[in-house]
Amino acid sequence: MENSLDQFSDEELDLVTECLLNSAKTRFDYEAFKNELEPVEQDFIDYNILLEIITGKASGESNLLISAKILSKFLMLGYMTSKEDIIEMINQKETELGLEIMASRIAMDSLQNGVHPTLVIKQISILL
Question: Which residues, given as ranges, of the chain have pLDDT below 70?
Fold first, then answer.
């Protein structure tokens, strides 16, 4: 069976990702969060922490699995942290990012059903 996401360009799909991330950054003190994680780069924070939490929780992954994914990315880049610290961060962020997690679930389902990304953004923007 062909993946229904193949009909969309990466740029179109990235619009949905950016919508979710931009909303997520307004749910908590993003600047303080970035400062706590220095010297970790902003793109790493956005895509390997926030997006991993949002999409992982939306897909029904456990906090332990999400933490293992994030921890491996930290370690591959030479950043030191503990699994416990990451799990604590996930616990906090899943509460703060509840709407984005729900919107991600809706977006994934809609995209898999062939709904165009611009329409998905309109759909989830109402929620966010």
Answer: 1-3
Condensed to tens digits (0 to 9), the pLDDT of residues 77-106 reads 888 889 999 999 999 999 999 999 999 999
pTM of the model: 0.92
**Separation CA 86–CA 64 (nearest Å):** 9
Q: Where are the domains of the chain?
A: 4-127
